[in-house]
Design goal:
Elements: H1 3-12, H2 82-94, H3 99-133, H4 139-152, H5 154-164, H6 170-186, H7 196-201
């Protein structure tokens, strides 16, 4: 082996049995040693709070405060029956609603109910205005309508007509007044005007409403 060949083998680490010599080239890097996996998972913690990882959001997540009994503060003109109160309480507890959340739902429901009531009042007011326009609201006409209701329906029928507002509808008033007029014609005349009590009772249909 000539001298040049011997130098080449010694530089490459051959023959000496030692570690290869660095190349001396700044752009050539030696590979990093490979660490073989042990096959055992890295433990997340041993149960000790000091060593067990903790979720930073644990302290931020809290169960909502569900009251034992909900407060029901309805708007004026509304009331909640015991049965409905029990139904709402059961639903609210199942949904784990707080008192604040339950109050918001009750307020929204109250607004819906009041809106329906106001719209119904507007409809009845429109019927009443039409009755006035057609000249149906007079003490004599209402007395005839009351006679028809008392004869064929009685006080319970009168209450239903008034409570629902149907009695204010022009078509219903015309029908009742026509029936009452026929009944009056069949009664023997006594030459007297209707009794004052009958005239006062006529206000059942249109309380305080423009009698002539």
């Amino acid at each position: 082996m000539n001298k040049f060949t011997q130098m080449f083998f010694e530089a490459d680490g051959a023959g000496g049995g030692g570690e290869p010599a660095p190349s001396g080239d700044p752009f050539v890097t030696e590979p990093a040693p490979v660490v073989e996996p042990s096959g055992e998972p890295t433990p997340a913690g041993d149960g000790d709070p000091a060593t067990t990882p903790k979720n930073v959001f644990d302290d931020l997540v809290q169960e909502p405060a569900v009251p034992d009994k909900y407060e029901f503060n309805l708007q004026e003109g509304l009331e909640l029956s015991p049965e409905l109160e029990a139904d709402f309480t059961a639903i609210a507890k199942d949904a784990k609603l707080t008192q604040e959340q339950a109050t918001k739902l009750i307020d929204l429901h109250s607004k819906v109910v009041l809106d329906v009531m106001h719209k119904q009042e507007e409809i009845v007011d429109g019927w009443t205005a039409e009755c006035q326009k057609q000249g149906l609201i007079s003490r004599e006409n209402i007395a005839a309508a009351k006679l028809a209701v008392n004869t064929f329906g009685g006080g319970e029928a009168m209450q239903v007509l008034v409570n629902t507002g149907v009695a204010n509808h022009p078509a219903i008033q015309k029908m009742l007044q026509n029936i009452g007029g026929l009944l009056m014609e069949d009664q023997p005349p006594d030459g007297q005007a209707p009794k004052s009590k009958e005239l006062d009772d006529a206000e059942l249909f249109f309380p305080g409403g423009g009698f002539k």
